[in-house]
Specification:
99 residues, mainly alpha, Trp Operon Repressor, Chain A, 6 helices, 76% helix, 0% strand
Length: 99
């Protein structure tokens, strides 16, 4: 965990996010908290990560998501050398899908 990121304010934000019950509540909350561009950037990075995990090429990812190769590289670096947050979420989603 990044010590610069861990603050009381970030803890409060994450606790608030954990109270959200469904996708509609997420839309309601995140539309208030983030700009449209911030939300689209976050969703683009997540989609890039999904596609990288599915072994798609940078070209395929760039064409489908509109992400730059720099963004794709940053996400790839996070997948390979980050805190395994993407993998944690992907595994949980896979488990839910199998149920």
């Amino acid at each position: 965990m990044n010590k610069k990121l861990k603050t009381e304010a970030v803890d409060h934000l994450f606790q608030a996010i954990l109270t959200l019950k469904d996708v509609n509540e997420c839309y309601t909350f995140f539309e208030d908290v983030c700009t449209i561009n911030e939300l689209l950037s976050l969703s683009q990075r997540y989609e890039v990560a999904r596609m990288l995990r599915a072994k798609k090429t940078y070209l395929e990812i760039a064409e489908k998501t509109g992400a730059s190769t720099a963004t794709i590289s940053r996400v790839n670096r996070s997948l390979n050398y980050g805190n395994d947050g993407y993998d944690m979420v992907f595994e949980r989603l896979d488990e839910e899908e199998r149920k």
